Every structure is written in C-alpha cells, then in structure tokens.
What does this fold into?
Amino acid sequence: MDIAVQISILKVLFIKGLLPMLKLAPLSLVFSLAIGVFGGVIRLLRIPILDQLMTVYIAVMRGLPILILLFIAYFVLPLGSNPFVAATVALSIYHGAYMIEIFRGGLQAVPIGQWEAARAIGLSFWRSIRLVILPQALLVVAPAVVGQLVILIKTTAVTSIIGYVEITRMGRSLMETLLMPLPIFGYIAIYYFVICHLLKIMGESLEHASRRRLQGRKGN
It folds into this structure.
C-alpha cells in the first residue's frame, strides 16, 4: 500500500475519529465522577429512601447493556436527537453507577479518626467531606477511577450506533470508501491500545504513589 495513503488514513482517523472520542470520554468521566461522589456519600449516610434508590439505580445500570441506554438517551429523552449529548448522558449515567461503588469504598477506607478530627474542629458534615475526607478518599480510588476510564474509552466505540462519529465509525466509513478493512482497523486497534496502555501505566503509578502516601500517614 502507498505510504501516502497510510499516512492519510492515520490522519483522518486521528482528526475525525480519535479527537471526537477524546472529547466524549473526558466529559463523560467528569459527569460520572460527580455521580460517583454524590452517590457514594449518599450510600455512606444510609438514608433509607435515598439508599434504596441508589441500590436500584446501580442494579439497573449493571443489568442493562449500554446500547439500551444509548437508544433511550437518543430516541426517548428530550435531547434534540443530538448524538454527542445523548452519548454523554448515557455514558455518564452508566459509568456513574460503577463510580458510586468505587467512591463508597474509598470513603469507607478513610479512618474513623479523620471523621472525628473534622468534627472536633467544628466542620459541618459536608465541609468535612469536601475538605478532609474526600481528598484522602481520592488517594484510595484514583487507580480504580483510571481503570474505569479505560473501560469508558472502550465503551465509546458503541456510540456510533446512534450516529456519533468517533474513531470506530470513522473507520467503517473509510473502509466503505477504500475497501481496506485490515489496515484501517489495525490502526484503530493501535490507537486504542496506546491510549489504554498509557492509562494503565498511569493507574499503576497512581496506585504505587497512593500506597506510599497512605503507608506514610499510618507511620505517622
């Protein structure tokens, strides 16, 4: 194959496929993190009605395929049939359910003495969460959050089903034009591998750093 054609394929996949994917994934991560923090605190408080609602929400999200959520977000919710908005909503809601459990575990891992110390200096519950507990919980959950981000990035591939043009859909469009499925999807696989592998390395680094800092605090 002509090297110029290969470079052109890589360029198109990057600009019209990878960049839209990298636009969708971080935004969905931010919203899913917000859901995770709020839901994790609610699960921690054990308020009966809210806790039951969170339990149902998590069970439903874990039991439904992401494709169903994408169809609901695109065809049912009043989002103006905007593929980007629908994909963001579906991915955020879906991965937010997993983030809730991640943050609940992280909040529960903070020693009870930290809660007592925050109350002793007169902080309200929500200020204690924001200023004392959550920063420490982030040390615990950071590796798991990075791992969930890797899963989220892979999940973006199915958003093409509602018309969002990310790298997989762009690859299919190129394949229909150039009739070269192997190199096109080979390049897509390389893009996915590089991104996910870099995130994996980041997650491992965060895990080691978090472990050292937590061990240092226990030593003190």
About this structure: The helical segments are 3-45, 48-63, 66-76, 83-109, 112-120, 125-155, 167-178, 181-219. The chain has eight helices and no strands. The two ends are 62 Å apart (CA to CA). The mean pLDDT is 88.
